[in-house]
Amino acid sequence: MRSSKSNNKISKGDEQQTINLVSLDQTYVCFDVEQLTNARQEVKLKRYEGIQDDIAWRMRTNVPTRYLINPSRGFIQNNEPITLSIELLENKFHPNHKLTLQAIAIIDGCNERTIWKHQNAKNYSKVQLIRLKLSTVLINVETTKYEEENFTMGTRNLEKFMEQSSTTGFKRIKELEKLLNTLEDDFSYIRKSTDRTKRLKSALEQALDSRKLTLVELKRRVIESDQETKKLKKELENKEVELQLAQQIQANKSNSPTCRIS
């Protein structure tokens, strides 16, 4: 492993600087927990351009029995993306679930495992943390609807305030400045809502694809069940015929006269 030589190397005295070693193509993970199989999402991990260090990384969670992550740890020596599969076991999600990706530059004398026991791993200025935002499709639909209703109500209240305002001069200027700040906050909210809506749209499209696959799977199971039922019914009919034949043979033997020699 090569030693740390990148421009992102942090000095011991600089504890507040943020270190950027890797990136994820998305930090928002939305699970479709209504499907038959375990909900699963993929994210892509990549080393930042310009970073020359070998990077060790690992995924940490507060519920290790609930998430199956493959791979869950490793190291990066080039700029090729790594696909991480995140599977929610039994689709049992809770808002308190946490997933965090940790990344650290590998130094001389350490490998991708022993580096986590080095003192650098205890120094927050040398370890990058990426916290994933976890949610479900249902939670996001309800949240989006609630926020839309609140935004509509806020817009109406603002219009009502402007109509009823009778201030002039300096007070009017202050009032408009306050209104401008409110509108800037609203624009920021709209941008965030737009991003959330795009992510929700993507999650819903994936959920729709999952439902289509689920429908195909259910149809397959119905066909197999129907075939199995017909097979069992046929076997039962054959058994009944065999039983009736055996009973008939037994009855014939009982009714036959017995010859005795004196």
From TrEMBL:
Bilayer-spanning residue ranges: none
Coiled coil (residue ranges): 215-249
UniProt-listed Gene3D superfamilies: Immunoglobulins
Coiled coil is among the record's keywords: yes
Keywords, alphabetical: Coiled coil, Cytoplasm, Cytoskeleton
Top-rank taxon, per record: Eukaryota
InterPro entries, per the entry: Ig-like_fold, MSP_dom, PapD-like_sf
Domain MSP: 20-134
Cited function: Central component in molecular interactions underlying sperm crawling. Forms an extensive filament system that extends from sperm villipoda, along the leading edge of the pseudopod.
Name of the protein in question: Major sperm protein
